[in-house]
Amino acid sequence: MKVVLQVVDNAKVEVEGNLHNEIGKGYLLLVGINKEDTLEKVKEMAIKISKLRVFKDENGKTNLNIYAVGGEILSISQFTLCANTAGTNRPDFFHAAPRDMAIELYNAFNEELRKCDLVVKDGVFGEEMIVSLTNHGPFTLTLEL
Questions:
Q1: Residues 80, 93, 94, 142: which is the catalytic one?
Q2: 139 FRET partner, CA 20 to 30 A, in 5, 48, 64, 97?
């Protein structure tokens, strides 16, 4: 499982020209599910994200978690994170989970985040989306399990 986490002032996702979801301050998560991923990995990733301290405190240090700032999450499924580009100019997606498995684990991931008492909004799995964000910092992390 691979997640690109971006600290945002706001983010939104549009599908077919219509606003689907939006958040204010929080995280934009781009979520890649691999063939080897399990419900246990999904749960572990959700807990890790809930505990990250990446927001600045009154001294400018990254000591605050998402709860401390009243943040929200916009979670977007993105199988292209699973691409292999080693030795080629054309990515292959051999390691990406099959569609049914990916949907199940992506939905489970979002539910695990909600179980952590986080506000989670999502994109539309398998659809072409327009994702817009205001990255704060910029502060971006790549998390892998």
A1: 80
A2: 97
